[in-house]
Amino acid sequence: MATDFKSIPIIDISLLLAKCDDPKMGEDPGVCRVVKQLDQACREAGFFYVKGHGIPESLINEVKHITHEFFDLTYEEKLKIKMTPAAGYRGYQRIGENVTKGIPDIHEAIDCYKEIKQEMYGSLGKPMEGCNQWPLNPPNFKSLMEEYISLCTDLSRNIMRGIALALGGSPYEFEGERAGDPFWVVRIIGYPGVSIANGQVQPENDIGCGAHTDYGLLTLVNQDDDITALQVRNLSGEWIFAPPIPGAFVCNIGDMLKLFSNGLYESTLHRVINNSPKYRVCVAYFYETNFDAAVEPLDICVQRTGGTAKFGKAVYGQHLVSKVTTNFVNP
Fold first, then answer.
1. φ, ψ (nearest 5 deg) of residue 247
2. Is residue 76 in a domain?
3. Dist CA 66 CA 82 (whole Å)
4. Hey, which of 23, 125, 184, 304 has its CA 20 to 30 A from 114?
5. A Pfam family in this protein (predicted)?
6. Residue 237 to residue 294: CA distance in whole angstroms
7. What pLDDT score was predicted for residue 2?
8. Do 186 and 145 contact (CB within 8 A), yes or no?
9. What contacts 85, CB < 8 A, 6 or more positions away?
């Protein structure tokens, strides 16, 4: 359960990554130090920064730069990859077409998912079947994003090995039938800046993305370095800023990890409000379970929380589809 945290902890995970392919990694003193920090962050905030993650800062910055290039295009150009239900909810959304709890969000985005072939998951996966719609302009957008997604997938798997140890399991607790074939989601998001009149910023009270929790296991947030807009809610209801740290990811845990941990770890509410006059981009990578995984509390977490499972089974794909099909409005 989240606490009254006042800031987001920073964790250097380089010692964890150095041993992440060793089955005995949990015995390594350096790994143990990182695991302890992960456990504390997941218990107290559900959010943390990671540095020492091994993804080149040049690539992190290039991803943000090309995202700015895309959102600078005309609407006519961007609408060439317009999201529709027929496209498996993949593609471009205009400002206001994404909805959180019934309220339009003031952002535009490209939504991408691990591709699902026809009949791969039967009726469960039917709404999400399809290929991602990548823009042809900028010309290297697809190749750059696919390289980035591959690296984020590997990184997330390794962080989850540390979190598995933090919960008292084996490092591979979230592999196999649970997340050995992880689904992923990427949202490439642009938040307009507030208007300026007579030299003064005119706040519009518009929320870039309303308060929500994430759906899966772990999120990696790559945000513009010079704009603070992401806010995380603590136990008292205060909104704590998560300012960007160059080269670092903001990480947070999602609903499926809350279920697996039997509530030891909380998927914390967060939102985005861009009060800057500058346009802000964010590329959010979501690492999920297997699409058809039946998620329920781990035995070891049930034992650690009084012996009773607090949650029933949830099929990740059903959870995702229920969210996706209600989060999109086509005006």
1. 85, -10
2. yes
3. 18
4. 23
5. DIOX_N
6. 32
7. 74
8. yes
9. 127, 325, 328
